[in-house]
Specification:
This protein has about 210 residues and is an all-alpha fold. It has 2 domains: about 1-55, Arc Repressor Mutant, subunit A (Orthogonal Bundle), CATH 1.10.10; about 65-205, Tetracycline Repressor, domain 2 (Orthogonal Bundle), CATH 1.10.357.10. It is built from 10 helices and no strands. It has helices at about 10-30, 35-40, 45-55, 55-80, 85-100, 110-115, 120-150, 160-180, 185-195, 205-214. The longest helix is centred in the middle third of the chain and has 27 residues, at about 120-150. The protein is elongated and about 75 Å long.
């Protein structure tokens, strides 16, 4: 049964193993990554792995937690600052810049794990579903602030728009990593933002009249 090490040294050792396993899973896939691969990469003993994680399933669950925390931490920080169209554009630019720094490789770690595991492992599917639920909450919070600031109409469907935005992220990253072209992500996010802008409330009558005269 996996444990949380009681000492700082033990926690550091476990974290080092999880980081190495996450890298191997990203490169080889969860199925192809064996405990022996992780042992070779970390010089840990097999008894350590069983002590910390119980078995390979426990190790992969730790990788899911690790990757989810990394992705969602970045998203939460960026999306918490979104309360205007400019803030939303900055978030989208940051997504593209991060992807470019990675050489347009890897895609979304959470999405990649979901594609590999969701159909074959119910407990891991639930972990990944929780991760996406947290991500949705961060996006919907940003969209709610846009609505509160009268940038989205009061009747805008936040849940639907959140799904559209999250789908644009996942689709854009998938297309980007297969083409090695970050433009695919930029286009996907731009399309999602354009859809949001189309949900802006109409200008007040005086402004509409001035616009027609102009």
């Amino acid at each position: 049964m996996p444990i949380s090490p009681p000492t700082e040294q033990g926690r550091a050792s476990r974290e080092r193993i999880v980081q190495a396993a996450a890298q191997l899973v990203a490169e080889q896939g969860a199925t192809a990554t064996s405990l022996d691969d992780v042992i070779a990469a970390t010089h840990a003993s097999k008894s350590q792995l069983y002590h910390y994680f119980g078995d390979k399933h426990g190790l992969i669950a730790a990788v899911v937690d690790y990757q989810s925390a990394a992705v969602l931490g970045f998203q939460a920080r960026m999306l918490a600052a979104v309360d205007s169209w400019e803030g939303l554009e900055r978030w989208a630019d940051a997504m593209v810049e991060l992807f470019e720094r990675q050489g347009s490789r890897g895609g979304c770690p959470v999405g990649t794990l979901a594609a590999a595991l969701a159909d074959t492992d119910e407990p891991l599917r639930e972990l990944l579903s929780d991760a996406f639920r947290t991500w949705r909450h961060a996006i919907s919070g940003a969209l709610a602030r846009l609505r509160d600031n009268q940038l989205l109409a009061n009747d805008a469907d936040i849940d639907e728009l959140t799904t559209s935005m999250l789908a644009a992220i996942q689709g854009g990253l998938l297309l980007g990593k297969t083409t090695r072209d970050s433009t695919q992500l930029r286009i996907a996010l731009g399309g999602a933002i354009a859809r949001l802008r189309a949900c802006a409330p109409p200008p007040p009558p005086a402004r509409r009249a001035a616009t027609r005269r102009a």
